[in-house]
Design a protein that fits this description.
Structural class: alpha/beta
Number of strands: 15
Order of helices and strands: EHEHEHEHHEHEHHEEHEEEHEHEHHEEHH
Radius of gyration: 21 Å
Largest sheet: 9 strands, mixed
């Protein structure tokens, strides 16, 4: 079954940890972008009807109700089995939640990241724990009970005690889905770049070390499992049957099409990527009618890279076992991979160093 991803790169503020193609941009750019996005969607030739929709960014919850309805009305397949919108806490009110539900949204992903005031202030988030709790009540009252909460392990000032506070809030709020990300350190975010240059801005000097961050992640795995929320992918945890149908498409290599800046598409054979600059995206749509800047055939072996992210792992054929024998044997002996029948999967230790393990299978 296929899916649709729509990118909305506009934010009220740029959080220090964010490395996405998004930011604070002028209102006139937003109007021009929405026109370009509508044009890209209208020009698409649909060879299948989407089952899932995902609006990410950026902060798509900033979209006016009419603009959101206009985008969704241009897509076939309503009602979708799952239609998700990413939301910044502190912005939800009853009329907005009702408008989302009327537009076809039935799942909300809340970018909470932390429930601890000091950590939130340091990263630029504008909500607090009580606001998140109140807004979850609003969503449920509007008929949107399929809710995800994002947390980040490794934020400035984070400790075992403060992390437990965030996990305690998760237990009380009892969402059906939780995503736990480990802070990414790269030059595409202000905090990540500051860590790379060994600076102290943005709270970089207060970021817990790798060992501590790994312990926070493992604490979350145990705490969530104790509440019946089990890991089904490296960063994603769900109650039984509440896994993200859309995101599973990425890891199972099912087809999806992406619209907007830095959006990616996969038809089962070819991968395509749009321009990662908002200005460049708008210009390309206006001049060429497409924002695609990269197109390449999919490598069948990439299923190891994406499939091993799933807790169930990948089903290895004898030919694949032979081709990857050296890497597989090395990681099995190191206790990072294990076989369960024909299924090859990461161990709990392997999950903590998954980037190292998965890199062995890139490009076959």
């Amino acid at each position: 079954m296929s899916g649709v991803y729509i990118s909305y790169p506009f934010c009220t503020q740029k959080c220090t940890y964010c490395n996405f193609a998004s930011g604070v941009l002028p209102p006139e750019t937003e109007r021009t972008y929405l026109a370009a996005l509508s044009s890209e969607i209208a020009a698409h030739r649909w060879h299948w009807t989407p089952e899932t929709i995902y609006l990410g960014g950026g902060t798509p919850s900033r979209l006016a109700a009419d603009d959101l309805a206009g985008i969704l009305n241009a897509l076939p397949g309503r009602p979708w089995s799952e239609a998700t919108i990413e939301v910044a806490p502190g912005t939800i009110h009853p009329d907005l939640a009702a408008a989302w539900r009327n537009a076809g949204i039935n799942r909300v992903s809340l970018g909470v990241q932390s429930f601890v005031a000091r950590e939130l202030r340091q990263t630029g988030r504008r909500h607090d724990a009580a606001t998140v709790a109140a807004e979850i009540d609003i969503l449920r009252a509007a008929g949107i009970g399929n809710i995800n909460i994002d947390l980040i392990a490794g934020l400035p000032w984070q400790t075992a005690e403060s992390w437990r506070e965030s996990l305690d809030w998760i237990r009380r709020l009892d969402p059906p889905h939780v995503s736990v990300y480990i802070l990414e350190v790269d030059e595409d975010s202000r905090l990540g770049n500051e860590l790379l240059v060994l600076g102290s801005r943005y709270g970089a000097a207060q970021v817990p070390d790798e060992e501590m961050t790994a312990e926070l992640y493992e604490t979350a795995v145990d705490a969530l499992a104790g509440d019946g929320t089990h890991r089904y992918e490296i960063s994603n945890f769900a109650k039984p049957g509440r896994e993200s149908r859309h995101n599973l498409k990425y890891w199972r290599r099912e087809p999806y099409v992406g619209f907007g800046v830095d959006a990616h598409s996969f038809d089962g054979r070819v991968r395509r990527a749009n321009c990662d600059s908002t200005a460049g995206y708008i210009d390309r749509i206006h001049r060429e009618g497409t924002a695609c800047v990269e197109e390449a055939p999919a490598n069948d072996e990439e299923r190891f890279f994406v499939g091993l992210r799933l807790s169930g792992g990948v089903d290895v054929t004898p030919g694949e076992r032979a081709r990857h024998a050296a890497a597989i044997d090395r990681f099995v002996q190191a206790g990072l991979l294990e076989f369960h029948g024909a299924q090859l999967r990461l161990t709990d230790r392997g999950v903590l160093v998954s980037n190292e393990v998965l890199a062995e299978f890139v490009g076959g």
